Amino acid sequence: MFFVALKMLTGDRAKFFGIIFGITFASMLITQQASIFVGIMTRTFGFLTDTNQPDLWVMDPKVQFVDDIKPMQDTMLLRVRGVEGVRWAMPLYKGLIQARMENGTFQTCNVVGLDDATLIGGPGEMVEGSLEDLRLADSVIVDQVGAATRLAKPAPGAPRDAEGNIPKDWPRIPLTVGDTLELNDRRAVVVGICKVSRTFQSQPVVYTTYSRATRYAPQQRKLLSFILVKAEQGVDPSILSDRITHQTGLAAYLTKDFIVKTYMYFIKYTGIPINFGISVMLGFLVGTAIAGQTFYNFTLDNLKQFGALKAMGASNGRLLAMILLQALVVGVLGYGIGVGVGSSFAILSKNSELAFRLVWQTLVVTGVAVTFICILASLLSIQKVIRLEPAIVFKG
After folding, report:
1. How far apart are CA 175 and CA 220, in angstroms?
2. In what helix (H) or strand (E) does residue 236 lie, and over which residues does it extend?
3. N or C: less crowded end of the chain, CB within 10 Å?
4. Rounded Cα–Cα distance for residues 182 and 184 (Å)
5. pLDDT tens-place string over residues 229-252
């Protein structure tokens, strides 16, 4: 009987492929849009995952996410160091500073200032140079993507206009070790290229020492962005967090808690979830409509066959099992093809601005959605078969 069900399913190739197309479209769109959404959310806290040395991030209580900088007084660093259970506490500067390019244009960079002595908070992976080279005069380390794109320098032989500017469409080559930049009208020498996670705003990331970063930054009374804290061995970071907050009045978060705080801000106060949710829902509805309508028409075209099976003694339960088998086959095929096509965007996202991150939870959600589509598509068909009279075989 199950073999007959499969023969009936594949007998009409147009309807068979139409059902698969509907489910494939739904699973592809859900997988792709959900993965892009996860990729964008991951970029919001990419800087936190790259900076994995500290146990705690200490900041102004009004900070809402990692890029919402509320500078503190430098004296706060000494107060945090005086809290019992703190192994070390290091300053970190994080801010947006404009870099002047050789063609006369400006590019906003995400400048990170590390503790001069320990360089804690630096990039985890160096492509060229060494982190210790930041101790050289006027030295900076630039992220690999930023050096190859937005901070790339003009190719040799570039023409200049009367003001000395180079045309924007002139070919450019990646920034390399030994090249120079101007950060807020101050000289910066590239001593290394690092690999970091993409940021939400996709701006180039520039690392330097804390004292040098504060000189690059516009002058203001408060410049300390964060305090990175490591707990003493045997001290629970959660307890230390409460202790720091109680004694200093500052907010202290575990890295995982600060990550949650960051992406929850974007979920609550931006339109990103709504936009991607609409796309996912659209894919689900379109897939349900195509698959449901095609599957229903397929059942109508095969009513005589189902009636013949009923006349030969097949029970309603056996016929229902046949329909569910047909739905399962097209569901598995559509899910596999759709997820495969949706996952291929991971290849396109490499070395591009496309944020794409496929996690196993996305595959589960897509599988549940496809299962629901198959159930909805087969419900109408099941009702039609249950009410079917075997005598239909002998009509006409």
Report:
1. 30
2. none
3. C
4. 6
5. 999 999 999 999 999 999 999 999
